[in-house]
Amino acid sequence: MLHMILFLAFAVLSVAGAVNLLIQRHPISSALSLVVVMGSLAVEYLLLGAEFVAAVQVIVYAGAIMVLFVFVIMLLNAGEEERTHGSRVAWLLGIPGVLALTVIICWALVEHSMAGVAAIGALPGPPADIAELLFHEFLLPFEVTSILVLIAIMGAVVLAARPESVEQTKKES
Amino acid sequence: MSILTFILVSVVKIALVLFVLLTAVAYTVWLERKVVGHMQNRWGPTRVGPFGLLQPAADGIKFLFKEDLTPPHVNRPLYIAAPIIAVIFALTSIAVIPFGNSVTIGRIQTPLQITDVNIGLLVVLGITSLGVYGVALSGWSSNNKYSLLGGLRASAQMVSYEIALGLSLIGVLILAGTFSLRGIVDAQAGHFVSGIAFLDHYVLRFVPRWFFFRGQFVAFFIYLTAAYAETNRIPFDLPEAETELVAGYHTEYSAMKFAMFFMAEYANMITVACLASLLFWGGWRGPLFGPEWFQEILPLLWFVLRVFVFIFVYIWVRGTLPRFRYDQLMAFGWKFLLPLAILNLVVTALVVALRA
Amino acid sequence: MVPLSYYLILSAILFACGVTGFLIKRNIITIFMSIELMLNGVNLSFVAFAVRWHNLSGQVFVFFVMVVAAAEAAVGLAIIIAVFRTRETLNIDQVNLLKL
Q: Quick check: B78 and A28 CB within 8 A?
């Protein structure tokens, strides 16, 4: 009972956040509603028992990635969205397509997923067990992602550096 | 323990901890003014009460009765929300911090902690990492270039130093093998033993197995430095550098809203000091002596003493060091603290792996 | 007790919201945020399926998604800054030339 109430409350909150992201015109409002979605998803993870995932969700998504978004919005002083309609194909085919897809997915999940019920903390994911999996079974993917992150860091620096400042450093060295 | 007693005990504990925390925040402000005053050859507050001890109350009353100005050019909802966000996240992170062993009152035994979760350290890190929104949003919503610059600086600085801060804690986590703050303190029990009777009896008996003495001293200094940057304190208080940015992100705030930012900053300082003593200095561990009732409360006193020392160091640093330049701050964080933290992590991991 | 399919439906709705945002939004940053929303929806279904099959691998997978999302955010935001520097707009409709 308690589980159901908590699930529904935070599900409604996350869907409201997602819809608000679509409605709001200012990017900073959209970013904040996305933070709300991420926070309520962290609670959903906690309800499923994935405590470590929930903590990392808050630290990485809400605490780092979204701060980066807010930072960029502030830095570029992004104003309200202009009212252009963009591609008509996206509106005519995209929206009905998305709706149809959602309905089909929901129907398939309800009818055919054979999913059981979950109690509170159904599958606890303590940090030690996750680490055991991550550093034994998934060691190769883990190392590959570390290389990916390294490349991403270098790419971000190269892309965001002003061309003039790069030339200046070359001259100085 | 029935569910009703559990809720009752929890509510009492939350109220008590919040009361103590807010009082501590108020008196940290008093302490800071007093200590910095004496360092600069002044007296600090003296007028209100003996030694100015009632100054926090006077400040509070003043904040309450001041006119709460809202400039016309601000983004109202976010302008109001920002200080609330800052203070809520600053206060909630205290929830998982243990202050001592359990106490028994009547038939109810309860740990001196609002709640013990097995990912306690991650919870503290997560909540404090959300605190940056308060600062960033206040800077943006004020619609003022000084505030915006302060907010930008704050968000970049806090995200950068969070990495060094997190990495410096991993050494401790490797040694302790748990995220639970109570577990980390328990892992620091006892004292060093070498097997040589003379050494054991005269020297090592007095050296406890705190993580600071178990090779984490580099990590401790990285943690302290990064924590100063996280809490926007001198020498890293660039988001509110008054000589450059008027008052940075809280330029447009007055009365209670300004007080909320103030409270958030000092509550964060206290949380950081608590974490430093829990993770590196053995938490509430210390020699126990005296009568039995005294031994019961002595751990709490040891813990408070450590926190007090760290807050004093905060103020001492404020009275001593000048402010960094912003590019120096970024270079220091990324080019010095981060590599050092990684080095500390690698060395700790190697030592633990070789011993195993 | 909550049926696991509820979690899956929630994740499908979030994913659909992300796709919709990707299609109708014109601000490049908001479009990027819609992608993050889609990733979040997928993460929820990973955790739900981890419970379904009693296998922690689903939770481990969420970490990989998060790492990729973080890398993507870093590079993507850098691209957005670079685009804004040359075009001085964030409207995706006005970024329609390969070369200026």
A: yes
Dist CA B298 CA B317 (whole Å): 29
Whether pLDDT at B197 is above 80: no
- CB-CB: which of C2, C30, C63 is closest to A117? C2
Contact A109, C8 (CB under 8 A): yes
- Distance (Å, whole) CA C83 – CA C68: 22
Tokens found for residue B269? 């300082």
Pairwise CB contact (< 8 Å): A64 & B162: yes
Neighbours of chain C (3+ CB pairs under 8 A): A
Which of A38, A43, A51, A56 best tests the B interface by mutation, with the highest count of B CBs <10 A? Answer: A51
In a domain, C42, yes or no: yes
The whole domain housing A153 covers 138-173
How many domains, in total, are found in chain C? 1
| A4-56 pLDDT tens trace | 888 889 999 999 999 898 888 888 888 999 999 999 999 888 888 888 888 88
Strand partners, A117: C3
Residues 70-109 of A with CB under 8 A from B: 70-71, 73-75
Q: Which amino acid is at C81?
A: I
The parent domain of residue C54 ranges over 4-93
Say if residue A27 is in the same domain as residue A112: yes
Q: Look up the pTM and report it.
A: 0.86
CATH number, domain of C18, equals 1.10.287.3510
To which residue do tokens 């929300």 refer?
B81
Q: Is residue C100 part of a domain?
A: no
The structure tokens listed for B230 are 């996280």
Task: Phi first, then psi: give them for residue B337, nearest 5 degrees.
Answer: -65, -45
Contact C2 A3 (CB under 8 A): yes
Helix, strand or coil, per DSSP, at residue A164: helix
* Number of residues assigned to chain A: 173
